[in-house]
Specification:
The protein has one domain. The protein has six helices and no strands. By secondary structure, it is mainly alpha-helical. Helix 2 packs parallel to helix 5, helix 2 packs antiparallel against helix 6 and helix 5 runs antiparallel to helix 6. Its main location: membrane. It comes from Marixanthomonas ophiurae. Pfam families: MamF_MmsF (PF09685). InterPro entries: MamF_MmsF (IPR019109).
Length: about 130
């Protein structure tokens, strides 16, 4: 039986956000796809954020943090390449970026599973 004119309680239920910590964890861990596919660490979280930000509690905050973090990593990587050629110190910067890009998604996945805000270490806010 289909409800043609929903009651206010039914309408409120259908528009309410759901809590899904597992999806938040998956979104953070999907950043590690960068090591497998290149830009997968940006594309997959971006798609999850854009499709779920109005449906899942906390997805908007975590999604923005992930996209900002990934864009920051891309920018720092682009900056470090000329630094390798000019000063030779860019290799240290690339190593640091690689470590942070591996550790921070795991830390934020744990924070998401505990209903905490993501860590914004070393992140430029492109999207606020």
């Amino acid at each position: 039986m289909e409800v043609i004119n929903p009651t206010p309680q039914q309408a409120e239920y259908t528009t309410a956000k759901r809590t899904d910590n597992q999806l938040l964890v998956i979104t953070h861990v999907s950043q590690l796809l960068t090591y497998v596919t290149g830009f997968g660490g940006l594309i997959v979280p971006l798609i999850l954020w854009l499709t779920q930000r109005d449906k899942v509690v906390g997805m908007d905050e975590h999604g923005k943090a992930i996209v900002n973090f990934q864009l920051t990593l891309i920018l720092l990587t682009i900056i470090s390449i000329p630094a390798i050629l000019l000063l030779g110190l860019g290799i240290l910067m690339l190593i640091f970026i690689g470590i942070v890009a591996f550790v921070l998604p795991i830390v934020n996945a744990v924070r998401a599973s505990n209903n905490e805000s993501p860590s914004l270490f070393m992140t430029i806010r492109f999207i606020s």
